[in-house]
Amino acid sequence: MRKFAAFILFSVVGTSGWCGDTIRPGLWEVTTRSDLLGLIAHVPSEQMQQITSLARQYGLKVPRIQEGAAISKVCITPEMAEQDIPSHFYENQSGCSVVNASRSGNRYQVELVCDNPRFKGNGHAEGIFSTPERFTGKTEFNSTVQGTPLYVYAETSGRWIGAQCEPMR
């Protein structure tokens, strides 16, 4: 259970903030829903603290998880908003590599390959920016987490909150 929870947290943190030049820079609220996130409620608090501590070691902040959804705040800088496909965001946050990324108008697609000591697998993320202040998307990921096969499907939505925020570190 702990390894599944850790994988979900890293996946949500790593893939929740994709953006392109059709969106507004500033503070965004991103909500990711997944059946596996519902399992987080069953992780003992001591193990959840260990997962949170591990995430911090990698420079990640664990989002608030409530009723099968992870809710986080993401700061999109003007430089990030200007990029056509910010593949470095996926690579830096999740430990995965982007092998294919494309964008057409307000739609994007990203293919991911992860090969690190904690998990290995392939994933696909896609989404649509309906306005400069809203997006929806989905992610599918087939992986092996510490030797255990795991399929993850998640739906993500984001909404712009305001122009001012601190840059992500």
UniProtKB/TrEMBL annotation:
<protein>
    <recommendedName>
        <fullName>DUF3617 domain-containing protein</fullName>
    </recommendedName>
</protein>
<dbReference type="InterPro" id="IPR022061">
    <property type="entry name" value="DUF3617"/>
</dbReference>
<dbReference type="Pfam" id="PF12276">
    <property type="entry name" value="DUF3617"/>
</dbReference>
